[in-house]
Amino acid sequence: MLSATGGTMGIGFWVIYIAVIFGFMYFIAIRPQKREKKKQQEMFANIAIGDSVLTSSGFYGVIIDMTDDTVIVEFGNNKNCRIPMQKTAIVQVEKAQA
């Protein structure tokens, strides 16, 4: 015969089951995303004038000026091709050689 608490499995089973699911989701989705965000913030903090960068659109350039949230990037050998863009458009940084 079934009991009033939900059959053969009690409420404790469901609480543990839900906790395991949330724990699994944390380690699969949330934790790696936080780690990637921290890595990206470190990269933005270490950007300096003269660094070679790769933009999210696939262009390589050199940073020639910076403000708080924007950079001016010079593309190619043409000194007239200078484009201002947000720092978040940078996906990879290679430090300038000293």
UniProtKB/TrEMBL annotation:
> Topology versus the membrane, per the UniProt entry?
Single-pass membrane protein
Transmembrane segments annotated in the record for this chain: 12-30
Kindly name one Pfam family recorded for this protein.
Answer: YajC
Tell me the leader sequence span. none
Q: Does this entry carry the keyword Cell cycle?
A: no
SMART domains from the xrefs?
Answer: YajC
Q: Where in the cell is it found?
A: Cell membrane
What superkingdom heads the lineage?
Bacteria
The biological process GO terms on file are:
protein transport
Entry GO CC: plasma membrane
* Keywords on record: Cell membrane, Membrane, Protein transport, Translocation, Transmembrane, Transmembrane helix, Transport
Q: Which family does it belong to?
A: Belongs to the YajC family.
Which named protein is this?
Preprotein translocase, YajC subunit
Q: Taxonomic lineage per UniProt? A: Bacteria, Bacillati, Bacillota, Clostridia, Lachnospirales
